């Protein structure tokens, strides 16, 4: 049994288009540049490699969908607006990639001029890649702050938006590699594109740009949202996390020593990835802890009919929520577990709206969207009570 | 619901926020400005190739084949930075030469067709007269075709070692005669030592 819930969307809530914001127009100009630059890369070969390109697009779409699902789950107490999430990915995939291509190419030539081509080819990716790409991707998060500051409530928002910028970057970067290798392959476009796409997804799919930019975004959002802390602390955290993003990216791009057998090089490669993944999860857990504290504070004024003390405890993490649903399934059956899941989603929605109203300093108790969510919660609770009593 | 009053400037944009966009624009342009500025300051790099100098290429991404070769005569230069392991471009007077090595090649004819595609993608270019080619000095055989542009002629030659390794030489020069001696691949291919598969 699923309770039919209603959703009230207040006009312009979650909108990204801000015609009056100068930064919005800068953002649009950068995307247009990115589209033109990438179009130039794709167009001469498009007719020849269309099949290979679309095969790579399909694989990268699966990667993107998987990551979007993971990121939606990582965002424990809020669902960022789809338009702003799309804007984050567009920056990473269009503007940041296009600017990075120009900067990286020039930087490699400079390194080769200062040293030699072999040295630049070996060490360039570990130096130039992080410097240019992390800077340009982090600026995507900064652009979002300038355009839609109201969607940065807590540090974790920066982590999510940063990861989305990184995801856009990763997908389009994979496509540019697919095109390059399709053309380069001596036998077939398809095998050239697929071999590099599958390799990149299997080897670097889990610990690539979303993680690096997530770390940098966390720092930017900490700086923007933690205004009660000392300026030096905020600057220190933002700079430190940007340096960590640079370090993670550089670590991944470090060359594997030549002459290693696959028995050594494969574990070494995956070992690097696992270190990066572990670092990211340490950051995420500290941000998630702060999220829960925020949730408890925000919801503490709500009536027991809306949220109970048990709910507050159960909402702490994805694991605690899942455990609560499993307990409910065991005691009262699957239907109760399903309703509890629905209730948890509505509580997240409520927290987001309450936080928005608190931020705006609303004097009116509940807006129409808050009232709708509370009605949903009441309906779900009624069904849940019924399901529990039916199971006894 | 909460309401916010926005003051606009003469351009119809939010007043007091223009500086943010300007700073962001500078920050976005910074990496490109720095690297392109340094690149320009360092000047264009040109590698001079000595007479009889042995050059090396290795296939990429699979390093299964390698090519040792020399350029005939003197006065060759290689423009730009030579990043790619598998291909290098050269010029002498008005003659452009490009040498490449590939591994795991199934069909030399298909390889020629794929590589000539990049040349004839330029407006006004086409290729014809595809024929068998062999070079006794190098012990390599394959195919050759003529390239014809509006004011350019050239040749593309693909040779292989029957084990999957292949070398490609593209020669382009101003003029309208693909059978001109300077477009003959023989002096180049004669020095090829193609290894691998």
Task: Write a brief caption for the model.
Chain A is 80% helix and 0% strand.
Specify the CATH class of the largest domain in chain B.
Alpha Beta
Number of strands of chain B: 11
Q: Percent of residues of chain A in beta strands?
A: under 5%
Termini distance of chain A?
Answer: 17 Å
Total E-strand runs of chain A = 0
The largest interface is: A-B, 48 and 46 residues
Low-confidence stretches of chain A: none
Termini of chain B, distance in Å?
72 Å
Keywords, separated by commas or semicolons:
heterodimer, A: 392 residues, mainly alpha, 2 domains, 12 helices, globular, B: 197 residues, alpha+beta, Protein Transport Mog1p, Chain A, 3-stranded antiparallel β-sheet, 3 helices, elongated
Description:
Chain A contains twelve helices and no strands. With 392 residues, chain A is mainly alpha-helical. In chain A, helix 6 packs antiparallel against helix 7 (231-253) and helix 11 runs antiparallel to helix 12 (368-391). Chain A is globular and about 75 Å long. The model of chain A has no long low-confidence stretch (mean pLDDT 89). Chain B folds into two domains: 1-43; 46-196, Protein Transport Mog1p, Chain A (3-Layer(aba) Sandwich). Chain B has helices at residues 18-42, 108-120, 186-189; strands at residues 46-48, 55-58, 65-69, 77-79, 87-92, 95-102, 126-135, 140-148, 152-160, 166-174, 193-196. In chain B, the strands form three sheets. Chain B has a six-stranded antiparallel sheet with strand order 5-6-10-9-8-7. A three-stranded antiparallel sheet of chain B has the order 2-3-11, with no helix packed on it. A two-stranded antiparallel sheet of chain B has the order 1-4. In chain B, a hairpin with a 6-residue loop joins strand 2 (55-58) and strand 3 (65-69). The longest helix of chain B is centred in the N-terminal third of the chain and has 25 residues, at 18-42. Chain B starts with 17 loop residues before the first helix and ends with a strand. The model of chain B has no long low-confidence stretch (mean pLDDT 90). At the A-B interface, helix 1, helix 2, helix 3 and helix 4 of A face helix 1 and helix 2 of B.
